[in-house]
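> forwarded from #structure-qc
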């Protein structure tokens, strides 16, 4: 009986560009759409970000990036209103996050800023 190797046998016939496009297509198909936030949620996010920036508090942000929600922990260094961005410092890097990317913000008041 003949054994079929499935998609493996076709991989050698495909160009690397085609394989890359197939991988990107799979990511886009599996990506979930961002949900709409209510006015109450937007107000809560704004209050938490304002308080965290003023008091230099530790904050956990949930951000929409590349088709998925990601969480970042750190401190808000600066708010840039005319560009609608935050300068956010994590343990490993500094990020510029757009206001439109942020889906939740939770503050922790018992965090020491000297750890970052």
């Amino acid at each position: 009986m003949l054994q079929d190797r499935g998609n493996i046998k076709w991989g050698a016939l495909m160009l690397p560009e085609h394989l890359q496009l197939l991988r990107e297509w799979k990511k886009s198909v599996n990506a979930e759409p961002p949900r709409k936030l209510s006015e109450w949620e937007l107000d809560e996010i704004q209050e938490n970000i304002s308080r965290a920036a003023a008091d230099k508090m530790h904050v956990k942000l949930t951000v929409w990036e590349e088709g998925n929600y990601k969480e970042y922990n750190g401190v808000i260094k600066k708010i840039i209103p005319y560009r609608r961005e935050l300068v956010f410092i994590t343990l490993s890097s500094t990020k510029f996050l757009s206001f439109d990317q942020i889906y939740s913000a939770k503050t922790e008041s018992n965090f020491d800023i000297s750890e970052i």
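QC bot note: The longest helix spans residues 39-55. Helices lie at 8-11, 16-30, 39-55.
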